[in-house]
Structure formats: C-alpha cells, structure tokens
Amino acid sequence: MSRFWRPGSEKPTAAIVEDEEGGVIFLPTSTSSSSSSGFGYASLERQRQRLPVYKYRRAILYLVERHATTIVVGETGSGKSTQIPQYLKEAGWAEGGRLIGCTQPRRLAVQTVASRVAEEVGVKLGEEVGYTIRFEDQTNPGTTMIKLLTDGVLIREMMEDPLLSKYSLIMVDEAHERSISTDMLLGLLKKIQRRRPDLRLIISSATIEARSMSTFFNIRRKNSLLESADRLPNPEPAILSVEGKGYTVEIHYVEEPVSDYLQAAVNTVLLIHEKEPPGDILVFLTGQDDIDAAVKMLNEEIQYRGRHYLDLLILPLYSGLTRGDQDLIFTPTSKGKRKVVISTNIAETSLTLEGVVYVIDSGFSKQKCYNPISDIESLVVAPISKASARQRAGRAGRVRPGKCFRLYTEEYYLKEMQPEGIPEMQRSNLVSCIIQLKALGIDNILGFDWPASPSPEAMIRALEVLYSLGILDEDAKLTVPLGFQVAEIPLDPMISKMILSANNFGCSDEILTIAAFLSVQSVWVSMRGVKKEFDEAKLRFAAAEVCLFNLLLTFLG
Q1: What domain count does the chain have?
Q2: Which of 148, 217, 399, 405 could lock onto 114 through a cystine, CB 3.0 to 4.6 A?
Q3: What is the dihedral of CA 408, 412, 418, 423, to 10 degrees?
C-alpha cells in the first residue's frame, strides 16, 4: 500500500520552489505504481492511478497541511474534482466527525461528481459520500465524510454555522466560472479564515488566474503570536499546476462568418457523420430553446436522409433535464452508434463525457445582463471568451486525438474575442446577494472584500429595492421580524415578501401557487417522442381570461 502524506508527519522528498504566480509549486519525484487503497474494484483503482492528478497526491496533501489556502490549476480531465476529496479523506481530514466540503457551481455537477466519488470509494451514495443541493439532501449526519454541495447551499449553511465549524476543509471547484454565488463564497471564506486559521481551503479550477487569486487569499495576520505558532498554516497561498489527460485537438474555423449558428451547427454534425471516423459529437449551444430546435432539426434530417443516419443518437443536455435523461448522457455509446450531445456551457468544465471526439463550438452562450438604471435583469445571447473557447475545445481530446469545429473565424478569435469572461457579480442583480450578507451579520456591504467588485450603481439599486420592500431600515439593517424572515427563505426577496404578506390578505394558497410557478424555469417537462401528447396537455391548462402578471402587479401594488 502506498504511503500518504498525513497531517503532522514528515514532509515528502521533493523540491519546493518559488513561483512567479505568487505562491509555491511542488515538483514531484517519482511515484509508486502500487495500488493506493482497497476501495472499489481493481479496475476503478487502475483508472484512478492513470489520472494525471495521481502523481501529485502527496504534493497536494503536503501543501494543504502547510498552507491555509492551496490553489490547484488543473487542466480538463486531470481528475481534480473526483480525486482530491478522496486523497483528503484517506489522509485523515475527515476524522473525528469533521467534514470535507466540496462545492460546485451547478446542481447537475454536484450529483454526477458525488455519484462517481461514491462509486470509487465503494460506498452507497448518501453514506460516507453524500451531496446537498436545493430541496435535496443526500447525506447522513455522523456518517458522511465527503460532502458535495453547491456554492449557494454552503452559503445558506453559514446562516446556522457562520464559521463552518463542522468542516475541516472546503474545496471550491470550478472557481473560474465566477458565478455570483462563487464570488460571494470566496469573500466569505476569506473572512472565516481570519477567525479560523485552521480552516483549509482548496481553490480548484481549469483556467483561473492563479496570481490574482493568490493575492486575494494572502491574509496578513495582525497577531505576531499567531504568526509564530508552528501549528498554524502558512497564510501565503500555495499554487500547484496539474497537467491534463488529453490528446491533440485540431482546431478548425469557418472561412466566413455564419449568419445562423444553429443551422451551421446542424450542418456540421451531419458533415462530421459523413466524413469523419467513429466518435461522439458534443455541440455547444446557448440554451434549452436552441437545443430543442437543434434536436428537432437533426431528427428531421435523419428521417429525410434515411438508413445511413439512423445510427445517430441525439441527446440534449441542460440543467432542467430529468435524472433519467441525464443518465442517458453518461451511458457508453452502443457499438455502431454515434452519440450527439447538444449542450449548454454546463459541459465546458463541470461534466466529463468520455466518448467525445468532436466538438462544435457555436461561439455563444446565454449570460445574465443587469441594468441597474432600469432595474431589469435578462438572459442575453453573448459571445464567449477565449478561456471558454479553450475549455470547449479541450473536451474533444479525452480518449484519442480529436477535432474542434469553431463556427467563427480565426481572425475573430485572435483579434476580437475577450481573453476572460466578465464575472457574474459585475452583471447581475445583487438584491439576493446583499440580503444574505446582511443575514450573516455583514453590515458594511460596500467594504466587503470581493474577488471582483460589483458596480456601485448595482449596489445602490439593490439597497433601494430592499428598503422599499421594508426589508432594510433607514440604517441599512435588516428589519425585525420581516427582514430576518425574508432572509431565511431561499427565494427571491420579492417573492419571499409576497408570501409573508399574503396572510394579511387571506390569499396564502393562491400566492404559494404563484410563487412556486415563479421559482422554476418551467413547470413543463418535455419527453422525447410524445410531442403531440405534450402539446395537448399544455392546452388543457390554457385560459385566455387569466393573466398571472396582472394578478401579481395588482397584489404588489
């Protein structure tokens, strides 16, 4: 059995060098190829050892022991999401009833990563390895050691346990996505570390700017006694770079800009099927509407073109899918078939589809856009960044050399595409974010330490909205009891206020129904092959004389 670097034990033989990114890098020596544990089947263990992150196992454990924050920059396919939590558990970070928390920005990623980790550890999901997402808790208090959860759920947990005392370590995965919950969580974790120097953080990402993140988490302790204590970790973040497990990916561009990326994507799928060897295809589109349209267009082409195209299996992938449809995505492709997965940007980093050899990149994604002057937030189709384009291309080289077909010109990529995306914090409505911070006792919102500062206009607008709803008082503090009640409900503050006020008007049942409708993307679940029945079911609920939005406007005054 291989040795692990355990907390408090002798450091491994290796070279630790200063890194120009602002931290340190571990240069590993040769590693043993023997099995590392008895968990699961031998085939799973061999798969674990073939992952690039495996040879950095002792390096990761060493840096986590010695440094308060460790930044792991791991390329797509390195195994960081599934393996690092297991290494930490094996090294003893979950002993004594403590938890190893691992966050993901998306619910689907939480479920799939948790399922994979549980399979590799050889336990039933919900026991030693569990997950928590909104409205679903698959954990067992006292038994669960590795807990997967979304960034937002961990923030909600802080309202009951502000210092996250039951966690020994928090791993923030896919931090480069920079969702509003991720940025808020990073700021809160930095604040917690000042009160809990023993709390270890791992910031994991594929494309994150290690230098800026290292600077952000470089906490200078004011107490010299704390600084000299041997048992406390070094506050200077460590940086570790892990190569990916990938093959060469050929990049192909269109010669002229395309006028209809949806039609171009469909045509490219058919062209790949005609000209290229076997291998699954991953298509990146913007949202459910585009995906459903592309699925319909491809199925029509299959019916029209005949037998040669019947071996194409067309599958959508977006966050609103049922669990059964999600499982189809990860099922190995049958012999003689070619799977075509049409996805949102959820497949950029959070999920790994092993059989993908060809990627079609539309160059667009749906992004939140908020105008604080008009107080209108909307989802708009916007160009992606170069970082996202590289991530998409990287999905094609997992099992053998692949190809990425970009539906934009090379000149556009080199000269016009932005290097990095704009953090969601800087283009979103901040009402829910501010009320959560207020509930956590952070009154100086403008002085809060953000990884990327939001615009002053958005902050002021959010404070004005909360004051007008009676959630904040004239001193910008939560009102009693309304403000604290609204903060406890995991919904948009306007909807929460509506629910709490409904009792005064004697219409709680009706308002709860309206609130439920407003809190989900869609109440309709479309099933493949039953479109006619689906449309008929929707028509049974149609009523021309009722307008939900007029009812809401009347109620809210």
Answers
A1: 4
A2: 148
A3: -20
